[in-house]
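Annual report, structural modelling task.

Input specification for the manganese (II) ion complex:
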Amino acid sequence: MNAEQNTALRIDGHRLLRRIEDLAAIGPIEGGGSCRLALTDEDRAGRDLVVTWMHDLGLDVTIDGIGNVVGVRSGRTDGPPTMTGSHIDTVRTGGRYDGNLGVLAGLEVVETLEREGIQTEHPVAVGFFTDEEGARFPPDMLGSLVYVGGMAVEEALDVVGIDGTVLGAELDRIGYRGTSPCPGPSPRAFVELHVEQGPVLEAEGVTIGAVTGVQGISWTELTITGQSNHAGTTPMDLRHDPGYVAAAVVAHVRELALRMGSRQVGTVGRLELHPNLVNVVAASATMTVDLRNTDEALLQEAEADLARFVADAATVEGVTVAERTLARFEPVTFDDRVVDTVAAVASDLGHTVRRMPSGAGHDAQMLARVCPTGMVFVPSHDGISHNPAEHTEPDDLVAGADVLLQTILTLDRMVLESDGLDR
Ligand code: HGY
Ligand code: MN
Ligand code: MN
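The model returned the following structure:
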């Protein structure tokens, strides 16, 4: 089949939608979403299902030392593959498309090439990375960060989760500590399909996002320690109340983000008091602050502002604060050749398309460290995600997968840096 005939190729939308349903049925939660926190039994079951599909497609499946799973379809030549993929772990209140769409659309790409008997010039790889969400074991994008050599696998295996478990032990428990080396082999190019998880595409009536990059991410855990005391007998001027400081930090994060404006966002997603009882002034408060900005200097400014506020509030209340960085990634810009290809393919397929940055973190931002990388977005209804109500129209899901297919075929015909290198 020649390149022109290839452009007529389309994925099997019904099979894609069916597989999304099949995967969503693992770890189901009320409202139609899924809970498959990284390295839980539900994550294992999801992994087992996708690995079965990979084997059914005849892919050469490898599992590395942090549990990343990659299936490779051979090309006419050997060497680094054109790679796609994403993640299948979810947050506790996950939707059915976040991550899953990118992995299952990747399988669709392979199945379409198989169905049509197309041999690509280069191998094609489809992968899912461990613990992209970072909600149980921070940081987020942990598996892909290890894959590209941004974090030593030994360090990652020692990460302690929010539930007190150790990542390596949980990886062993679910049977997904593989033998393939970390870091993994760099692909020749990487492109990830993902739901936008924001309101822009739907609001503008655009079907495809050609993603230009990912904003910077800063996750900090604060452990505030005060003096536990009786709620009734302790005069207000004698209190050292970590709960009060935590509440002040929550209010300050909102005020800081609004004051900085532009693309600054700030979130306190986790807040736990101990002993968390109605008649006890808390002994301690543990909380997380998620700050993001597309501009690194502004993100640093937001971090410094937060640190000053926390220090001042702690001094006034007479409490101590221990700070721990859970994740810190600078903004990432994707490769113009991949971004341009996504935009051109989308237009050629007759879809409306706009370039845009990503508000959410993605495995692609890690792969961008080692190869030309880009992403394809499809609209999220009402911009909702990390919520079981997450929804994307079936036609948009299929459109995204067709753009992914044609982008991979276009990249396959391109000459890229790693082509022809003796590996
Ligand atoms: O945190 C994020 O943006 C991603 O969902 N892991
Ligand atoms: Mn995701
Ligand atoms: Mn997510």
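The pocket of manganese (II) ion (ligand 2) is lined by residues 87, 98-99, 132, 194, 362 (CB under 6 Å).
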